[in-house]
Specification:
The longest helix is centred in the N-terminal third of the chain and has 18 residues, at about 1-20. This protein has a 5-stranded mixed beta barrel. Strands 8, 9, 10, 11 and 12 form a 5-stranded antiparallel beta sheet that branches. Strand 1 and strand 2 form a beta hairpin. It has about 300 residues and is α+β, with helices and mostly antiparallel strands. Helix 2 (about 25-35) packs antiparallel against helix 3, helix 3 runs antiparallel to helix 4 and helix 4 (about 55-70) runs antiparallel to helix 5 (about 75-90). It starts with a helix and ends in a 5-residue tail after the last strand. It has 10 helices and 12 strands. Helix content is about 40%, strand content about 20%.
Amino acid sequence: MFNSARAVSANERGRRADDEGRDDIAESHYRKAIDLDPKYEPAWFNLGLVFKRRRDWANCLRVNLQAVELDPRPQQPAWWNIGIAATALRDWTTARRAWRGYGISIPDGEGPVDADFGPAPIRISPDKNGEVVWCHRIDPARAVIESVPLPDSGHHHGDIVLHDGQPNGEREAFGRVLSVFDELELWKASDVATIVAQLTCPTEADAHALSEMADAAKLPSEDWTASIRPLCKACSEGRPHESHDRDGGVGWRMVRDFGFAGDLAATQDLLDRWVALCLGAGYRIAPQRITDAVVIAPVRS
């Protein structure tokens, strides 16, 4: 009983160190708690969080497996962190066991889970610029980027990212409120290049026409001038309030930054057809390319 009380106290000291961002101190307290009472599950789980923040997936998996051995109930959060760590390590048998242990219905089979878990906004590079992009989740911890991320994000359309299971904000789309998840790491890099073009669009209809033409050509595109909104931290990690949906009184911006994903020749052909279409409509100031398209290729390891 005395050791158990001391284990609880050591665990609480570890949590306080966690709150202060002192991982090494937190780890030492959690280890002390485990030494005092090896059956004290919260200390095992909290030690797993330290390893998760470090992306030390092997140790994260090991200590969370111990946590669920002590407390195997469904929806025990250690199951989720086992799923994340096993996915990072490509240990699909353990990942499938973890998702089922948590209570998620997973299709039968072996190897990676490749199912439809719906759309999700994911905050990529959360420790840097923290751009939120639209993705499609293929399992509880992986999602494919469907947006065209900004070049300085280091990400590309088609990347598969490993993401956390703890929501960190909300976005409204498709008539629903969807949770924002933070990226943990790039799980698999895409081989699709990002093509950057700065364009003049005299009216909103011109930008809309280009987006429709890109969709018809199955060329992923993004009007970054429209889609990228600077948000305060409270809104980024919550639900953006109304003022972020307004243009701040600036009005329509003719000079716009666009991103495309794919082949440069196909993008140039699309832009040529778009300009020709707009010229045929009799514009006095025709939509045009201001700069030549710049290709930003994925970095291959």
